[in-house]
Write a structure and sequence with these properties.
Layout: H1 3-12, H2 17-24, H3 28-36, H4 42-52, H5 56-59, H6 64-67, H7 75-92
Helix pairs in contact: 2-3
Length: about 90
Amino acid sequence: MNSDQRKQAIQEKGYSLQMIADAMGRSISTISNVVSGRDVSAPTANAICKIVGIPVQTFFADCDVYSKAPTVVRGKARKDKVAELREILATAS
């Protein structure tokens, strides 16, 4: 969805950006910036998606930060990555 489609989905639920801002205790500019994709806030994006009933990956499909699933590294691969980071940090100082 693009910014206009997101705003339309919110309006179709009977809400305005100002109503969402008031309910969340946030400024209208914060909500507007997240909806338009100018600002990134996972908690705000998740709350808006809960309101409209659309998964965040769909609602913010044009925003890579929300649409890409995080990479989860576990086990030995994680330990190897942590060791790699420690080595990088040790040589950076």
